[in-house]
Amino acid sequence: MEPDIVADADLLRAAGDPRAFAQLYDRYDRQSFQFIRRMLGAAHADAAEDLHQETWMAVSRSAAEFDPGKASFPAWLFTIARRKVLDHFRRQKVVLLATAQEDAADLVPDPGPTPLEQVESRELAQRVVDAVEALPLEQRGAFVMFAHAGLSLEEIAQATGVAVETAKSRLRYARVRLRHALAGERSAHV
Amino acid sequence: MSDNAPDPVDKAYVEAEAVLADEAARAARRARLLAAVAEQPAALAAAAAPVPAAPAPPRRRAAWGRGAWLAAACVAGLGLLMVSRLYQPVTTHPPPATPKPAAAAKATPETQVSAPPATTVRADEAPTAAADTATSQEPAKPSDANRARAEAPPAAPPVTLPAPSPPPPPPPADIAPMRRAAPAESEAGPSPAAAPAPAPERPPAASGRDQTTGGDDLARGTLQRPASPAGAAVANQAPSQHPSAMGGLADPASRLRAAAAAGRTTEVETLLDHGASVDAADADGDTALMISIRTGHPAVAAVLRRHGASLDRRNHAGESARDLATEQDDPRLDRALGLGP
């Protein structure tokens, strides 16, 4: 993602101006909501609206804490969003698989590019999204942040509190898994 | 293929999201969020001029209700119970000192009759430093043997104190130091005498990993993951550095956060009593109090607050414990934190 970091920070600090906040919200609304929604998966989809609102309320409440010198606004935003999701899982007593185990379990051959040039039908789109939601949690987060929200690997690493190489691995594993999952979609739908 | 390069899978996913996008729901979500943000103008104002967090609404500062006092009484009772458990075992060992008849004869009659035997022993200059420690720590808890010796001769003339019976065998040299060293075990080396100290109820298996990850496992929700070999190695090394009441696992602050996350009130209290830093934060800046609030453990939060945990310290996401409590909107939690009636 190549956002205007200064502009984001300026919008965030435009205190008392609802329009500035709305403008900032409009920039990242879709990405942040879809990130939360995909991280939650189908089983917890009902919580997406609330967590999304909690995320942005936290953004507005903690605006003074944001330091553009330390992280980009998207990295900060997705840090908060990810934590909201994890907090939700804790409250729901959801036991997550270990990240390292998830990553290590993915040492499978890459089938190569998936010839899935167009996702036009709603049914096929749903299958793609289902495949994304079937990814291990941290791989899913890295993939959605990169592919949909446009965060860089460095920003993903910041948002998830891991090294850049770890973020890179998660993204790579996520893609391999998705290629496996979607390998048969073209013959069936394209 | 480079990880930064576009990937067909990425494109497929973006297209899928576009196909499934629900603009009506998005518009509704936007309106709801902006309305909610507009209702908290103070927060937006704070963004322009950073100031300390605004005080909580007045209703949260109302006097404590009956439930809060009951909770406080329960916590106090728990503390007393723990103290009694911590100090009980040592009373089974007799003081090593041998009273000297000559010195005893110099004491006044009142002292000989009414003073506890342990005091008499102290006046007679116990021969070892260990004995000094024991008597100064436990002046009101003499051994049964000494108590019997001191109380047996009340009818005898005070000046003619009966000759002391043969001195009991001296206790192991490490008994007395054990009592004093227990609270400061982190600086002390391993001591077998410290082993009887009450261990936490359920030492978390993940603590070894917490040490290596700065507690970030909490944020990842992987607390129940089996310890890795590396983590096990760390856990195996830990007892040599942190014996006794810390449960033999390193990094009390990580253990404190793990105990807070699991709602283990007794372990939290024990760790705090043994010097764990109440406001130590993990890699995300979360303190034990924040974690206890998130995980819905008001009793743990109350203990942490009683030990001075900060409500206003902020994590890396800019959230304070007060913010998190407000989000939870749980009257029990508010009472535990002293924020509600």
Produce a short descriptive summary.
The complex is a heterodimer of chains A (190) and B (341). Chain A has 10 helices and no strands.
Assign the CATH superfamily of the largest domain in chain B: Ankyrin repeat-containing domain
Total separate domains of chain B: 2
Uncertain runs of chain B are 50-63, 90-248
Q: What order do the helices and strands of chain B follow?
A: HHHHHHHHHHHHHHHHHHH
The top-level CATH class of the largest domain in chain A is Mainly Alpha
Would you write up a description of this structure?
The complex is a heterodimer of chains A (190) and B (341). Chain A contains ten helices and no strands. Chain A has helices at 5-13, 18-40, 48-61, 73-91, 99-104, 122-133, 137-147, 153-160, 164-182, 185-189. In chain A, helix 2 (18-40) packs across helix 7 and helix 8 crosses helix 9 (164-182). Chain B is mostly helical and 341 residues long. Chain B contains 19 helices and no strands. Chain B has helices spanning 8-20, 23-38, 41-48, 66-87, 101-106, 109-114, 117-123, 129-137, 144-151, 175-181, 207-213, 216-220, 229-237, 252-262, 265-273, 288-294, 298-306, 321-328, 331-337. In chain B, helix 17 (298-306) runs parallel beside helix 19. The longest helix of chain B has 22 residues, at 66-87. Residues 50-63 and 90-248 of chain B have low confidence and may be disordered. Classes of the chains: A mainly alpha (190), B mainly alpha (341).
Keywords:
heterodimer; A: 190 residues; mainly alpha; Rna Polymerase Sigma Factor, Chain: A; Arc Repressor Mutant, subunit A; disordered C terminus; B: 341 residues; Serine Threonine Protein Phosphatase 5, Tetratricopeptide repeat; 2 domains; 19 helices; 51% helix; 0% strand
